[in-house]
Design brief:
Layout (H helix, E strand, L loop, with lengths): L4 H4 L5 H14 L5 E2 L11 H12 L12 H15 L8 E4 L4 H10 L7 E6 L3 H9 L3 E6 L10 H7 L4 E7 L11 H14 L2 E5 L24 E6 H4 L8 E4 L4 H11 L5 H12 L3 H22 L14 E2 L4 H6 L5 H10 L2 E2 L1 E2 L15 E4 L4 H17 L1
Parallel strand pairs: 1-10, 3-4, 3-5, 5-6, 6-7
Antiparallel strand pairs: 2-8, 7-8, 9-12, 11-12
Helix pairs in contact: 3-11, 4-11, 5-10, 12-15
Amino acid sequence: MYISNRTRNLGTENAFVVLAEVNKLLREGKDIISFCIGQPDFDTPRHIKDAAIRAINAGKTGYTDSAGVYEVRESVARYFSRTRHIDCKPEDVVIANGAKPFIDFALSCVTDFGCGDEVIYPNPGFPIYESQIIAHGAVPVPLPLSEKKGFSFEIGELEKRITPRTKLLILNSPQNPTGGVLSREDLEAVADLAKSHDFWVYADEVYCPITYDREFFSIASLPGMYERTIICDGASKAYAMTGWRIGYAANPILAKHMARWMTNTESCANHIAQYAIKEALDAPQDETRKMVESFKKRRDLMVKLLNDIEGVRCLTPGGAFYAYPNVSGAVARLGLNSAEELRKFLLENGVAVLADIHFGRRNLGETEHYLRLSYATSEKNIVEGLKRMKEAIEKR
């Protein structure tokens, strides 16, 4: 039977591919320390679980409005208004089963299939950006992130990629896979370009509470930008709720259109989980703050240990829970050709990581090699895993 080319060519999220490989090795009795999955190792806070249980007992188990329960959207609107310094109304908000569907909805709302509409996205970046751009029949335009800029991008490089066909720019800050955080100055320059060239901005801000050295700032906070910015956020990272699958987005123009896409695809977000996120957003944020403090300690430990390995250098990430070390020296030392070959070598030595090719095509002229390690794991695992990595690289 025929399988469409769109399906055959659909990309994937390699973190889950490698995770399956790691789980297979674990089932076979291999001793593997994994840094490959971006998932907090904390449990969902008790008060959020209790809110979900209350919702079940109260019979909150049926369909909801496609945009979400109104009182939950009120909570999300207050959260966006408070954290982005904007006037977000409940009518601007849509709730979905995770944050990822909003990539689909945003592309569906602002691009047309096969018409040459262009979407600029960060590279390296979350791999679903590129795969969804292609699946929607738009043209992917990668924007290279620069290690020398702390894994931000040069504004001139963005400006060169803007054409009359540019419909959408995807920003991700704090960023996966690098942990980079965009500065207010860079966001102001981006905002000027968005307004002068009239394109939308998709602000993927799911890691916004997880910043360490400076306060999070959203491009939607800048004058005239909320109207053209699709703010995307979710519960997975900030509240250790990856399996609850609950995300939320806001835009005063596109919300009603994204709600129609919800009707056509998912009907509505999980009713029970909506009440859990209402509790998460309305309650004191003490548990999230504790989690971020723990991530900061782990970040500092991992960066120190990575920089102690010959042939490895690692910037200190400003947010999220990923380190993105430059391993070019280690690749050369081991006589390998790529970070992917180093990833496989490390897996043979009991350490699971991801390689740069898992986060997009290599930039033209790129000569450096990178790995991504998640420090959303215990300090004990970080110490042991980095010890194995150091021994494997330096012994060889």
